[in-house]
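Appendix B: complex inputs.
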Amino acid sequence: MAVSTPPRPAAAGPTRFLKRRAGRRRQWPFLLPMLPGLLFLGAMAVYPTVYSLVISFFRWNLNNPLGKQYGGFHNYDILLKDPAFWHSVGVTLRYVVASVVLELGLGLGLALLFFRSFPGDKLLRALLILPMVVAPVVVGLLWRYMLSVQFGVVNWLIGALGFGRVDFLGSPSWALPTLILIDVWQWTPFMFLIMLAALQGIPEDILEAARVDGAKPARIFFDHMLPLLRYPIAVAVALRLIDAFRVYDLIFMTTRGGPIDKTETLSWQIYDAGFKSFDIGYAAAFSWLMLILVVVLTTVFLRLMLRREDLA
Amino acid sequence: MQMRAKVIRAALAMVAALVMLTVAACGGGSNNSKSTSSGPSGTPAKGGKVTLNAIFLPATWGTVVKDTLAPEYERETGVKVNVQLIARDAIHDKMATLFAAKDSSFDIFNLDYNWIPEFGGAGQLVPMDDMVSAADRQDFFPLTLKVATWQGKLYGIPQTIHPALLWYRKDLYGDPKIQTQFQAETGQKLEAPKTMAEWLQQAKFFNGKTFHGKKTYGWAAQAAKGFGNVHTWLSFLYTYGGHPFNGDFTKSTLSSPQGEQATAQWAEMMKYMPPGANGFTYDNVTTAAQQGTIATALQWSWGAFAVDDKKSSKTVGDWEYTQVPAVTAGQVSHPHLAEWVIAVSKYSKHAVEAKKFAAWLETKKNDVVQASLGGGDPVRQSSYSNVKLTKDKVPGTNVLRFRRLPQVIVAMKNAMPRPFFAGEERWETTVTTPLQAVSLGKESPAQGLTQSDKAVDASLQR
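Resulting structure:
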């Protein structure tokens, strides 16, 4: 049976269009106050981003009196064929994945500990978040001194326990794990705070109902708490993921990319290219490849974590 | 309707004002000067005062300028000089970004000489030839001027030099018990090493033993990734006769028999440094020397002031200085030269005044004043015979404070600069990684140098 569609009134289309236009005309003076903000955004975010994309196609060294020369995909071509680039991608991924996973695990564990109040919990909570408020440069310097082979307190303690001294920042096998642990020390409090706030937001009656049904603590956590923590975890991990990719100051203060190239991350190589060699075009191409990598990874992670309707 | 028109007009006026403000701010930004603007370059306007802005290294020669000489210059001339102290890498970054923006915020820069080809060649520094008289040219060490010159133009006034010297502990080398022990173990007499082989033998002897109540290591030198390991290794490379480049800096030539011998000797020596030495910076070497945990060191001549400082050193008067050992007895060695110069930005609005200040800092009198205040070794040959320096003693001792100076004069005859071309900073960044792989025993000298050659050639192509 054919279904007939009721005919549209002949004037409906143009009338609606005219009404919408009239509505917009009435609104736009009130949108004007947004213009300064939009201009600011354009000048501070959009323009530099577009500019960096443009210069990534140029062969441009700041100290070259010849200035910019269009090179097409020259910079990208060199980069993608450069083993040092792929090495730094590997180092960065290891650093990011290990530190974020550890921070999430520890942060969640600590949040569960602090979920129920106990004597002195407020003071402990304040102490726990201290590392997060210290500047990464200071954190790097602090740990460099504490981990010093000869004069560091950590090696002094290791020595006192009867073990040999460890060159944490100078040994090719120790340097990256040490940086990961420093990052974990500094940023676990961030995860902890988000997880604690999320846990405290879970309706008590859900947990109470599970308890009444005889669910054990582990079952309550995995079946009732964890699903409700999905969004906070997604947000916290995405934020830390993006931040961990940018690690630079910690490396600057501790290993400077060494020993050898064991801690040369993408950000470190971009700094070398941009500010040591002043290869601005090359550094811009490097930055864009890093941006693509971050966006791809974050998107994949969010797609895995969130449902289709959440993303929509 | 009228109300709406009013709202629109008000909003448009607001936006226009904002755009004008933004344009004005941006327009002023690139050539904005913190210097007190006062008429033509270097000439203070009537009743006005010129203020110069300078960036110096936060080493002693920078603090001497900031705390003593700049205030004195203001008293003498009325020209105020604001001095900011900024770390080496940050100076390099700042210069490039300021110059790219044609920014005139800073008039004077303290430069590591290897940046002269880079910034001088790009036309971002003001030639200073007119500030150095013929008599001055005779007085400055020739090498100090050579490395401040690019394509025939002098772009910096030399401020301080510090060629690498071999430091050795006089208290250990002069101890009869240790001398006997050394003779018994090696069959040799314990005296300051003249050859690389002797130095290695002595480093092995001292390493790990306890002398004068302290566990001692063979030697220390800068070895950290970055410029540290490259600068130390260069003294070995030059002494063994190696050259990093061909004549026109178009090809890396590290893989040579001389290069391999030098790198092998350096890597072997690295085994006799204190634990964690692969990350040693200038400060770490200084601390080790002050604490007396090393028997010898390859360190800048200027750094000697730190070990004679009673407040921080346990080895006051214990260190003596000599030349970097040669390959074989009777030959000369070629220490790596460090030098800092004072340059003036092309974008300075007070270039004439800035040049005058730079030249004033290095008058005969001030060269001595700077050295006596601990501001690095003098750049003028005449300063080396000035009694203010030659007779000065470490307070409370009979030890000459500037006992290193005769060795500095000798070192300046044979010292060699870093590869003097515009890509030197990039070159250091490139070779530091394979060199560290060699020093950590992860690669052989031959492998490390081959890898360096490849990486340098690739970066030259970029």
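Chain A is about 70% helix and 0% strand.
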